[in-house]
Design goal:
The chain is α/β, with parallel strands linked by helices. It has 24 helices and 16 strands.
Length: 606
């Protein structure tokens, strides 16, 4: 099936390329998908196995490593999710096949920072949903696959209704068309095998690894017919100057190589950094390899963001405006020429221009700034390397929820750390050096981390201010006070003032017996801490939370924010929130999932 799908895709590369329009001309969708599929096919052919799960795993690995462009990476994620769904399986039936398609869709959507409907994602989603439904009503793989192809074509035909730019140029989505070709190849393979085993992989005989074998690659279906009066290419309908994020970047981060920064790779946070000045973002982390694709105005920033996480390899940077100008020139030449040879020469010239636009770090052997300037990093100014942002913010925090809140409020890097795991000076230095910003603020968010942060600021030859936040509530208050249009001094003053105005509370467990300020504490008790002082202790979590909040609100307060930790119980939280709303009705109450360890609840009062 896979080889048949790959063959049909290959035969229609140019037709798919002519449809390429979204989001901007960044190479050729058909070519990218074909190269991706070819890589998967090569890996599959080199890893023979009687188990379908193992074969699917090989295909997934080949697709991931060979993925090109947005469409290629999304395709690799569709099959990555598929492979994970049937891992360790020797055989599968149609229900499992359909479920694997759905799992692939789920994984692909997670890989894209801002999923856009009317693309390959929509076609995959609609098709998988239909496959899951059909698989419950049929015991025949061929019948199910026939429905899959029909549904995928229906979904493809709707893409112009979902994406205005497609309707503008009168085409369907190119990536979606490529996926339909693959599905049609799958169906063709099943039809070819219809006479060999119960009309081809029916439920009475579980699907064998032959679904992914060369034996099914027979006589691919004819190419996709080109729509009548379709434009020579969809890209020709766009204006070059409208390509906002003009640099198309792809590269790998090898986590096993490069200097050890100590930074934990957080996919969501990394995507957040890329999205500050880019789009079409795809980040695929698999074992020790991270694949990155992004369209950006500032390729230097992207490389600097990535460098702390490992050695960068296979770097490709294309100027999409240059590509677009080449394409328009090529089409103009073809229209004015009656010679087929002239058209061929123009295409060759365009290919050569594209090749000169590719930056290969391995070939150049240069450090990150050298990739951009061709001169030693020590002899260039930051302005020569790339345009820097006015400000950058680095915060320390534990828990995905807390990290997400920080990232949603102008924080560029979140270092994983807190009471039980303090980031080192080196961690701060590495994070500082990864940011392309003229002035950087550090939020240690823990009294035990302030010195390391300050030492890092002193070591770096950068403009750095440490906001001496001692807990997460103070850190959150500080970032909310930050203003993009303020000066470095104005922001520092506002952030320090905001941090100092919030009352902070924490609930955790005592690790030993003690007596502090007249409060007797037994090991395992819940203790309530307001600022630096333990103000309550009890064997009851609910009593501790209520007593702590009551003391925090003795001097009033308009807003109470509760961050739930990984140990927080939903029922306990609901009871606490209900009590707080009834007891302190004058205060607004917000609850967010922080995910922090050790502390079931963090509380802020403003």
């Amino acid at each position: 099936m896979v080889l048949s799908g790959a063959e049909r895709l290959q035969r229609n590369v140019e037709r798919i390329n002519a449809l390429n329009v979204f989001p901007v001309p960044d190479g050729d969708t058909g070519t990218n998908m074909n190269l991706t599929m070819t890589s998967g096919k090569r890996e599959l052919q080199s890893k023979s196995s009687p188990a379908i799960g193992k074969v699917a795993e090989a295909l997934s690995k080949g697709l991931l490593m060979g993925a090109r462009g947005n469409s290629g990476v999304i395709l690799s994620q569709l099959f990555r999710g598929f492979a994970k769904s049937i891992a360790n399986q020797d055989q599968i039936d149609s229900v499992q096949f359909a479920a694997a398609l759905q799992n692939g869709v789920d994984m692909a959507y997670k890989a894209v920072v801002k999923p856009v409907e009317g693309t390959i994602l929509t076609v995959a989603k609609d098709t998988a949903k239909h496959a899951v439904s059909i698989a419950k009503r049929t015991t025949d793989f061929t019948d199910m696959m026939r429905e899959v192809v029909t549904k995928s074509n229906e979904s493809l035909s709707r893409t112009p209704d979902l994406l205005p730019v497609l309707k503008q140029v009168g085409v369907v989505d190119s990536g979606g068309q490529g996926l339909v070709c693959i599905y049609e190849g799958f169906l063709q393979a099943l039809k070819e095998n219809a006479g060999t085993a119960d009309d081809g992989f029916g439920l009475t005989e579980a699907a064998s690894p032959d679904l992914f074998s060369a034996a099914t690659a027979k006589s691919p279906a004819p190419p996709v017919p080109r729509p009548k009066q379709a434009p020579a290419s969809a890209q020709a309908q766009l204006a070059t100057e409208n390509i906002e994020f003009l640099y198309d970047m792809e590269f790998f981060i090898n986590r096993k190589l490069g200097e050890k920064s100590g930074l934990r790779f957080d996919e969501a946070l990394f995507k957040g950094m890329l999205s500050r000045d880019g789009d079409s973002i795809l980040v695929i982390a698999d074992d020790e390899i991270i694949k990155v694709h992004v369209h950006t105005r500032k390729p230097g920033d992207v490389l600097n963001y990535a460098l702390p996480y490992g050695e960068l390899t296979e770097i490709h940077i294309l100027n999409m405006r240059e590509q677009h100008r080449d394409l328009l020139h090529e089409e103009s030449a073809e229209l004015s020429s009656t010679s087929a040879a002239a058209g061929s020469a123009s295409a060759t010239a365009a290919d050569e221009l594209k090749e000169t636009a590719i930056v290969e770090e391995a070939a150049l052997g240069l450090a990150v700034p050298e990739v951009l300037t061709g001169t030693p990093a020590s002899s260039i100014s930051t302005e020569q390397a790339h345009e820097w942002a006015p400000f950058g913010i680095i915060a320390v925090g534990m828990g995905e929820g807390i990290a997400s809140i920080f990232m949603d409020n102008n924080v560029d890097v979140v270092l994983s750390g807190g009471q039980s795991m303090n980031p080192s000076t080196e961690d701060f230095v590495t994070a500082i050096e990864s940011l392309s910003a003229e002035h950087i603020y550090l939020l240690p968010n823990n009294g035990n981390i302030i010195m390391a942060a300050q030492q890092a600021a002193d070591l770096c030859e950068r403009s750095v201010t440490v906001i001496r936040t001692k807990n997460i509530p103070q850190g959150l208050a500080a970032v909310l006070a930050f203003k993009e249009d303020g000066t470095a001094e104005e922001n520092a003053e506002a952030m320090n003032a905001a941090a100092g105005s919030v009352r902070s509370g924490q609930v955790t467990n005592a690790v030993r017996n003690t007596s502090i300020d007249g409060i007797t504490i037994q090991e395992g008790d819940y203790i309530g801490i307001m600022e630096k002082s333990i103000v309550t202790a009890s064997s009851s979590l609910q009593d501790t939370c209520r007593e702590l909040l009551a003391k925090m609100l003795e001097d009033g307060g308009e807003l109470v924010t509760i961050l739930t930790g990984e140990q927080a119980d939903a029922a306990e939280t609901d009871a606490f929130v209900q009590w707080a709303n009834e007891t302190f009705s004058q205060a607004e109450l917000e609850v967010h999932e922080g995910g922090q360890p050790l502390y079931p609840y963090l509380i802020a009062v403003e």
